[in-house]
Amino acid sequence: MEHLIVYNVSGADEQEVEAMMAEGRRVLGAIPGVRRVFTGRAVREDARYRYCWLVRFAHPAVIDSYREHPDHRAFADTHFRPRAADRISIDYQEVE
After folding, report:
1. Greatest CA separation for the chain
2. 57 bridge partner residues
3. Mind listing the domains of the chain with CATH numbers?
4. Nearest to 38 by CA among 66, 59, 57
5. Which is nearest to 31 in space by CA: 70, 2, 60?
6. Given this model, what pLDDT does residue 31 score?
7. 9 and 79 Cβ atoms separated by less than 8 Å
8. High-pLDDT (> 90) share of the chain, %
9. Which H/E stretch holds residue 20?
């Protein structure tokens, strides 16, 4: 199970965005059941969405506890959502 967010940032420069992503990798990566937190920037500057998060979970059931985890809620409410109102979020499972 993976959680993907593509987004744009307002009210922050590139260094602030990179600091937010580093903090997110640290905080979110420590939540039980999270296997990996990947952050990225679009290759093309004119891409519709400039940044992304990809959070990989150990099991599909983890997504619910992740969403409710106090560290996730605090990071999302304090650091991410105020800066990334323009976003698309989707949860998906790998198809083999």
Report:
1. 40
2. 34
3. 2-92 (3.30.70.100)
4. 57
5. 70
6. 98
7. no
8. 92
9. helix 14-29
Q: Are 7 and 48 in contact (CB under 8 A)?
A: no
pLDDT tens digits, 32-59: 999 999 999 999 989 999 999 999 999 9
Report angle CA 70, 72, 78 to the nearest 5 degrees: 95
Quickly state the pLDDT bin for 94 (edges 50, 70, 90): confident
Other CB atoms closer than 10 Å to residue 1's CB: what's the count?
Answer: 18
Q: What CA–CA distance (Å, rounded) separates 74 from 78? A: 6
SS3 content of the chain, % helix, strand, coil (to 5): 35, 30, 35
Cut 0.70: pTM above it: yes
